Amino acid sequence: MTTRDLFIIILRIIGLFFFKDLVISSAGVMPLLSSFGLTDDPSLKLMALMSVVVGIGIYIVLLYFFIYRAEWLVDKLRLTEGIPNVLPLAIHRSTVLSIAIFVIGGLILSTEIPNLCRLLFMYAQERNIGERNSDISDYLLLTIVKVVIGVILINKQRQLVAFIEARRKHL
User: Fold this and answer.
1) How far is CA 30 from the centre of its chain?
2) CA–CA separation, 101 vs 154, rounded Å?
């Protein structure tokens, strides 16, 4: 494995963490979007919508560069200067990416399963009382989506690595 390959793998892992953060930060978007009906001020609605779009746009650009253009980043940031070219590691990059995807899926699950249990309990309590709180329903749905994404990351890690590697070969 060369130093360049190691830095490319590290940058892609950072990109996968940006993906995780994008999924998790989407939780903050749901209450913001559901609050659009609470105000009649169009400038406030526009500012809220623009902040969401800009935030998601920044994450998508970072994801693109860290995952699909990691080689370009290594070249532009000159990460391999002053470091020996060959490292005594015999781990293939797909193995490292597979481990990273598994770890990220595990982190998402370890964060969201307790939230899911808590929200299910709160939802059941509200149904017994007869109250309806749309915030809990929104958060419950979002937490379920996050759990599903975590499970998909763990179960489909090979396909995701193959997709990233295939995309790398075409660029």
Assistant:
1) 16
2) 7
118-127 residue pLDDT tens: 888 888 777 7
Asked if residues 146 and 37 have their Cβ atoms less than 8 Å apart, the reply is no
Helix or strand (DSSP H, E) at 54: helix 42-63
Which residues share a beta bridge with 2? Answer: 86
pTM exceeds 0.70, yes or no = no
Nearest C-alpha neighbor of 80 from the set 1, 164, 166, 168? 1
- 95 lies in which domain range? 3-170
Q: What is the pLDDT of residues 40-81, one digit of tens each?
A: 777 777 777 787 788 788 888 888 988 899 899 889 988 777
Query: What six digits make up the tokens of 158?
Result: 């090979």
What are the structure tokens assigned to 30, written together?
Answer: 């749901």
Number of domains in the chain: 1
Residue bearing tokens 């980043």: 73
